[in-house]
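#onboarding

Welcome to the new folks! Below is a worked example of what a typical request in this channel looks like: someone posts a single protein sequence, and someone else replies with the predicted structure as tokens. Don't worry about understanding the tokens yet, we'll cover that in week two.

Example request:
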Amino acid sequence: MAVIHPSFWRGRRVLITGHTGFKGSWLALWLTQMGAQVHGVALAPDTSPALFNQLQLTSRLASHHLIDICDPEALVQVAAAAQPEVVLHLAAQPLVRRSYHDPLGTWATNVQGSLNLLEALKPVHHPCAVVMVTTDKVYANQDWDYGYRECDRLGGHDPYSASKAAAELATASWRASFCGEEGHQNPYLAIATARAGNVIGGGDWAEDRIVPDAMRSLAGHEAIPVRHPLATRPWQHVLEPLGGYMQLAEQLFTAQASPREPKEPAHNRFASAFNFGPALEANRSVSELVEAALQHWPGSWRHQSNPNAPHEAGRLHLQIDKAHHQLGWQPQWDFATTVARTVAWYRAVHEGASPLTCCLADLSAYQTQAAHGH
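Example response:
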């Protein structure tokens, strides 16, 4: 089974976009713990509290830039200064319901912002692995009983989902056009996309997400409001896809940096789309997630549906065979462990524990299990 190699990341120049967000903060912490030189590009955190601030990550970074990825000139300057060997692109407008209120801003950030980043990397003249993070919602949702594969049709009903599907298409087009050995192409860049399931874990304080809403309610001794109790999602701990992104980046970089035989094709076989989802048993309904959480922090929940609410997908699931066979990646924590560790983080912090201590404990437990298998 493939694992993350700290020796690969030690001293590695890494650029993270969206490093002030929930997933980006966990990723920056993990990489800096392994000794990577992490450069961050993002907007200021838009939640209070914010995990980025709780972990005091600014002091851990090689550089910290509060800029909008819709500013192409600023991205060019950051990329030129950082000279990244690995780029992990997480910056996005990530909320479905917010995308209904700000569709144009969502499209601008998720599509044009992604292209701005790729353009900023054109001058790179050393091997560079780029992982563009999208979402499980890039697929044309058919409410199937089986999961979506990387080759299934892209789509998206709401502006968020559609903008992420468009980002996949834009990235694939940019890669086909500008990565390679021809005169107008860059032979050093290797670009992949990564699609993860519904990520939960300590430190997510976003609006309109079931786990942060639930934890706020429990902390306030209130019933948890649940909009779609029967909707199913592939729930996974935040460390699962982050580990997948890093394993993909390692393989991308190694393949790009390795000398090729004269007749070997120039195409990097890892430069494609990968799903990083949980095991099938973690594909549960929202009500099951809430009931599991209440086993670790007693309380109650109430059905608060709104017949006039914007459309949200009813059923989602990812097939992860490709990541398993090509990268050796597989999820480590089952549904019960994921919920238990997530709720324990929030409850401990609510009761006065250090967010950093709680994060490091989760990281240590996850890495130990990954090193020893299931």
